[in-house]
Amino acid sequence: MRHLNKGLLSLAALPGAVFAQQATRTPDHEPALQQTRPNVVIIYADDLGFGDLGCYGAKGVKTPNVDKLAQNGLRFTNAHAVASTSTPSRYALLTGQYPWRKQGTDVAAGDAAMIVSPDQYTVADVFKDAGYTTAAFGKWHLGLEAQTGKQDWNKPISPALPDIGFDYSYIMAATADRVPCVFIENSTVANYDPTAPIYVSYIRNFEGEPTGRNNPELLYNLKSSHGHDYSIVNGIGRIGYMKGGGKALWKDENIADSITAHAVDFIEKNREKPFFMYFATNDVHVPRFPHPRFRGTSEMGLRGDAIVQFDWSVGEIVRTLEEQGLLENTIIILTSDNGPVLDDGYQDQAEELVGEHSPTGGLRGGKYSAFEGGTRVPFIVHWPATIQEAGTRDALLSQIDFLDVMASVVGVGKGKALSPDGQPEQEATWFGAEGDGRSYAIGMAQNHTLTLRTPQWKFIEPKGGATIIPWGPKIETGYSTSPQLFRRVNGEYDESVNKANEYKSVCDSISKELERIKR
């Protein structure tokens, strides 16, 4: 177990009127946080867009369980993931460090080395220091073991989640479209089958093993549209090569059931002591292959049905908390790792059946992008014991603050920043204080183009690159060789008109501030 005084770094608050901190703790707020030790559950969806939930205006799909959390909690409309892709967003959420500060935080292969190193202080460590029991379920996608490609999946894996603060974990080694297609329970493959030893490679195939590219007739569940045509598991092509697995191989239609059942079991077993649970779903991420009982429950085919399945998982978590008498004093934070994408590698008719629904809620761009659709995500906070007035907030939020806000809630760190980039003072905003929230929020697109938002402006740095994602998804990237500046008008960043030349002094000021933060 790492201690609080190891490897901690805090950055000074940004100077200047444009970047002055807006959020402050209110006198009425502090006592409520000191009187209780709430359980904490973060529900981290995958590729769920700003417009994909009923409470955010979704069409063609109903999400009653999530909507009820929003109705009885706080729904934020200007909250952001730290990146528009999965691995860097998750890294930032768990460590409070911008992913561009550390090499190797791009979208990880299934055999990537562990990106969060054991000597880093994580949000799980925060809760361990506060006396909590900690657990992680579902998608991981942050690497395992010390060296890339050197894992022996037939033996205990180290380092793994027990080495970064989690008492219990039941996770997917990477993500559903990448091998190995097995769950890792703590440090070993769950339901390991000794008659079918596991071999994984991201370099070459194993002799005699079929692939989606050479054997498309074996893709009986989903066919590939671009990429995703290497090893075949459960009639679906994947990224990477895999041999073996046997009884340990997952069935995609059962993933949500499996991680939800393990999460429910954890809640029931730990009802007598405070716990922290990281519940990361895969439903909306490709390959979308929800359980048959969810088929046809939306008007949008498999992607819409996967959103319904996600909503069911949320309902099971909430139901269990309520049955155990824990819901009143449990903080539930529901958000997503990045914006949405329709065709991301499989022929699931997501583009053809989207209808009038806008996964981004009308925002420009999407997953991978520097535009708003890339990082603007749903963000719902539910905590009945403290949030007395439910409602909607347009304060500027960033997931980079998760570690420090949680530390402030449970009384670790005495109000000081425990991460390189987080701001514990944002706690007040997360739980209902009126105001603008953060003075700035930084996002990272797929090619490392950085964006900086203030409550009034959004800046996209000039980095260049293709204007449309080149490998398949029909998404604008927002990349340019010129600086881009957008003004917030009536609560929305107007990304239709670049104001960089009209407001050159503002553009230069924000650009310089971004460079200072990067250094």
Q: What is the distance, rounded to the nearest whole angstrom, between the alpha carbons of the first and last residues?
A: 30 Å
Q: How many β strands by DSSP?
A: 19
Class computed from helices, strands and strand pairing: alpha/beta
The name CATH uses for the topology of the domain at 29-191 and 251-430 is: Alkaline Phosphatase, subunit A
Treating each run of at least 4 consecutive H or I residues as one helix, how many helices? 10
Question: Could you describe the largest sheet, including whether it forms a barrel?
Answer: 10 strands, mixed
Order of helices and strands: HEHEHHEEEEEEEEHEHEHEEHHEEEEEH
- Sheet-strand content, in percent, reads 15-25%
Task: Write structural notes for this entry.
This protein has 519 residues and is α/β, with parallel strands linked by helices. It has a domain at 29-191 and 251-430: Alkaline Phosphatase, subunit A, CATH 3.40.720.10. Helix content is 20%, strand content 17%. It contains ten helices and 19 strands. Strand 5 and strand 6 form a beta hairpin. Residues 5-35 have low confidence and may be disordered.
